[in-house]
Amino acid sequence: MTDRPIAIYGATGYTGKLVAQELARRGAPMVLSGRSPEKLEAAAEAARAAGGEVVRTAPAAIDDPAALIGAFDGAATVINAAGPFVFTGAPVLRAAIAAGVHYVDTTGEQPWIRETFDRFGPDLERAGVAAVAGMGFDYVPGDLLCHLVGRAAEPLRELIVAYDVQGFDPTRGTMRSSLEMLKGGDVVYEDGDWVPAPTGVRRASVVFPAPIGRRTMGSYPCGEQITVPRHVRTRRVVSLISTRALAPPQAEQTLPYLVPGLAAALRIDPLREGISAKIGDLPEGPPEDARRAVRWTIVCFARGEDGAEARGLVSGPDIYGLTAVTVVHGALLLAAGGVSGAHAPASAFDAQAFLAHLAPFGVHWERA
Ligand SMILES: NC(=O)c1ccc[n+]([C@@H]2O[C@H](COP(=O)([O-])OP(=O)(O)OC[C@H]3O[C@@H](n4cnc5c(N)ncnc54)[C@H](OP(=O)(O)O)[C@@H]3O)[C@@H](O)[C@H]2O)c1
């Protein structure tokens, strides 16, 4: 365990506060940073009440590079929990590199994950620090599972990753990030390269293990499209999510047909900004019992060039609680040293050991 603190940017948000609790549980000192000094003081009080060692609070606006660098100075790793990451990712990562500090975040936004590799990879290598974006529920279990399953049959003709989530109640931050994701601009990995994702309707079905059974699926612009080809030899990645994860039962069947129109509408900036402002009137996120009651299952199918097949699944509870556990574990592993550059979860860390760390939290994985 490092004796340097772990910094949290966005420490005042729903997820940031869970991350502080997890750092307290792990006995790691922390620096709490974000744009609001008053909210940071309240977050520090809550973290200390949970037994956490808050070294300092460090207010820093996202457009103030000097303040961000000052906030991260002396830390081992910064955990960015402030989204949407298409706005906050680059300033926070740039400051982390300038301060010589590792970087992890809780993003689910594929364009930002791609940017960490394409735009920041060389700078990270030069600075000798590492960045792993998408270190929460999105996309740690999925990326690690794809690694363990895909490696068993590579080189692959195709790798399919499919998500089912039950009882999900998103936070305001997730809703705002989803608005940015739904407007499009994502890519898929096809024929050994990244190409713009098709914009038309995509409807599929996947059979999950009992008691879930067959689910209607839509395409999912997930991070595995970016990360998996960096550690598994595959020609193609297909990513799907069950429609019940995203819509109430009445809209579930029609959702795949609605998404293209919704995406076109959300590309209109004032409309997106108006919806984002309205989200501010909603509750911060689910209460603790509802958060803990969520159940998710991810399956992976790999088809080798030679016809070999491999499959597996990973499942567990509590998307937001799990995110705090995975992002903190990643931050502490990077703090221990030995990794630099832009990484996927499975290229930065040992996949089996990381999943074993999640077992006490209720995460189960198997090769089927
Ligand atoms: N995919 C996953 O598995 C997963 C899981 C958990 C979270 N997340 C992502 O993590 C992010 C945060 O989620 P959340 O639920 O914690 O949301 P939240 O409760 O709304 O918190 C958002 C945090 O970001 C800060 N922030 C937002 N815009 C900012 C800006 N322009 N400058 C500086 N700080 C800014 C907020 O500061 P203020 O308090 O000052 O407003 C707050 O600390 C979202 O993008 C969400 O999608 C993803």
Q: Which CATH top level class of the largest domain fits?
A: Alpha Beta
The fourth-level CATH homologous superfamily of the largest domain is: Dihydrodipicolinate Reductase, domain 2
Beta strand count: 16
Q: How much beta, percentage-wise?
A: 15-25%
* Poorly predicted residue ranges: none
Which descriptor suits the 3D outline?
A: globular
Strand order of the largest sheet: 3-2-1-4-5-6-15
What would a concise description of this structure say?
The chain is an alpha/beta fold and 368 residues long.
Layout: helices, strands, pairs:
Layout: E1 6-9, H1 14-26, E2 30-34, H2 37-49, E3 54-59, H3 65-72, E4 77-80, H4 85-99, E5 102-105, H5 110-118, H6 121-127, E6 130-132, H7 140-150, E7 156-166, H8 172-182, E8 187-190, E9 193-196, E10 203-208, E11 213-219, H9 224-227, E12 237-242, H10 249-252, H11 255-266, H12 269-279, H13 288-293, E13 295-304, E14 309-317, H14 319-335, E15 341-343, H15 345-348, H16 351-358, E16 364-367
Parallel strand pairs: 1-2, 1-4, 2-3, 4-5, 5-6, 6-15, 7-12
Antiparallel strand pairs: 7-13, 8-9, 10-11, 11-12, 13-14, 14-16
Helix pairs in contact: 1-2, 1-14, 3-4, 4-5, 7-16, 8-12
